[in-house]
Design a protein that fits this description.
The chain is α+β, with helices and mostly antiparallel strands. It has a single domain, classed as 3-Layer(bba) Sandwich (FAD/NAD(P)-binding domain), CATH 3.50.50. The protein is built from ten helices and 21 strands. The longest helix has 30 residues.
Length: about 400
């Protein structure tokens, strides 16, 4: 197998396959350094299902405990009204709703897991073309690099070169929003509560990290506002952020580097063709308002690993369309449901008409009062319902 892209999704898939005894090459523009190769201020919300996948690939135990935040409750409210909904893990008799991990820390743990499996990342300056034959596929890079495999997997992000060279369509829909991500230290403790406030320009999320006064922030707003926030001096940024959050955590007393990135939704026309498959952002992109992007990608990786391993154990070709169609039917439908749900939420909370604002506030209050609906939303958001790969349900699949 050959995986192009050494982000979290590509690394998870590689670790799962290698631990199951499948030879696998991971190629990326940046070679393996043994540690995190970049500072990324984004905080990822990970579900219990994502944790199970990370445990299966050997990475979860390599995360420093001090780098793993947990949220036991979640509060969502509308700044343009009184509507509010709260989720509590105790209502489901579980200890946590999810985890918050910085992307840099997760990538470092995954690279360590890959190293422990006696593998690394092959440098690939540029992917120039892909050659297909009936029995194999060859990823051809600059300076004569040739990586042959029975299956090539594109895990190289939303601007996937693998997807482009494979001729697979990908029509993104821009939200006319950018997200600003950073880590902040607040006056008041977060209390292991994830908070999201819907503002007129987009949602603002405070994601609780391990330190009780530290949160990851994801602030979705207009591109112009995001750039202004990124360029502001720290004191002015702290004042604006505290006000935008309704001072729910008191003053913001410190913050780290700020990163801005554009928001879009997209779905690849196909997830596979003979000897090639797409996973993660190479296959789909979603709005970050519910923190599901990384989780969908990890479910892709676990699902593809399950399909490939089952086909090989049965003596079938892992790169055949017979094998890969099962992965595509499985994950494309699940991801489409999430894309549509998040797009609907973004449109609903982005509407400024008074009648729509009243309706959504009433809807939040109604959902908060109906326990069956809240429980269904919680189990879905935690990755505990839907058509899930075996690895997401716990250990044992690779044994």
């Amino acid at each position: 197998m050959c995986i192009i892209g050494a982000g979290p999704v590509g690394l998870v898939l590689a670790c799962l396959l290698i631990r199951a005894g499948i030879a696998c090459v991971v190629a990326d523009r940046v070679a393996d350094t043994g540690t995190s190769y970049r500072i990324d201020p984004r905080a990822l919300a990970l579900t219990p299902a994502a944790r199970a996948i990370l445990e299966a690939c050997g990475a979860w135990s390599l995360l420093e405990p001090a780098s793993i935040g947990e949220f036991r409750r979640m509060e969502v409210w509308d700044a343009a009204g009184t509507g509010r909904i709260e989720f509590d893990s105790a209502d489901l008799c579980v200890s946590t709703l999810g985890y918050i991990v910085n992307q840099s820390d997760l990538e470092a743990a995954l690279r360590a897991a890959l190293s422990a499996a006696h593998a690394g990342v092959t440098p690939l300056a540029d992917l120039e073309r892909i050659e297909f034959t009936p029995d194999q596929v060859i990823a051809c890079g600059a300076e004569g690099v040739r990586l042959p495999a029975r299956l090539l997997i594109g895990a190289d992000g939303a601007r996937s070169r693998v997807r482009e060279l494979a001729g697979i369509g990908f029509a993104p829909h821009a939200y006319n929003q950018h997200a600003l991500a950073c880590t902040v230290h607040s006056e008041l403790p977060h209390g292991q509560v994830a908070r999201q406030r819907f503002l007129a320009t987009g949602p603002l999320a405070f994601l609780p990290l391990a330190d009780l006064h530290t949160c990851g922030v994801v602030w979705s707003t207009t591109p112009e506002h995001a750039r202004r926030l990124q360029l502001q001096d720290a004191a002015a940024f702290h004042v604006q952020l505290a006000a935008a959050g309704g001072h729910v955590l008191g003053d913001i007393v410190n913050s780290g580097p700020r990163m801005v990135f554009p928001l879009q939704r997209a779905q690849a026309e196909r997830y596979c063709r003979p000897r090639l498959a797409l996973v993660g952002d190479a296959a789909h992109c979603v709005h970050p308002l519910a923190g599901q992007g990384a989780n969908l990608g990890l479910l892709d990786a676990a699902s593809l690993a399950e399909v490939v391993l089952e086909s090989m154990r049965a003596g079938r070709d892992p790169g055949s369309m017979r094998t890969l169609r099962r992965y595509e039917r499985w994950r494309r439908g699940e991801n489409e449901m999430m894309i549509l749900a998040l797009d609907g939420m973004q449109n609903l909370f982005g509407a400024r008409e008074p009648a729509v604002r009243r309706l959504r506030n009433a809807g939040l209050d109604l959902c908060d009062a109906l326990d069956p609906i809240k429980h269904w939303l919680m189990t879905r958001a935690m990755g505990r319902s839907g058509d899930l790969p075996a690895l997401a349900l716990g250990p044992g699949f690779l044994r």
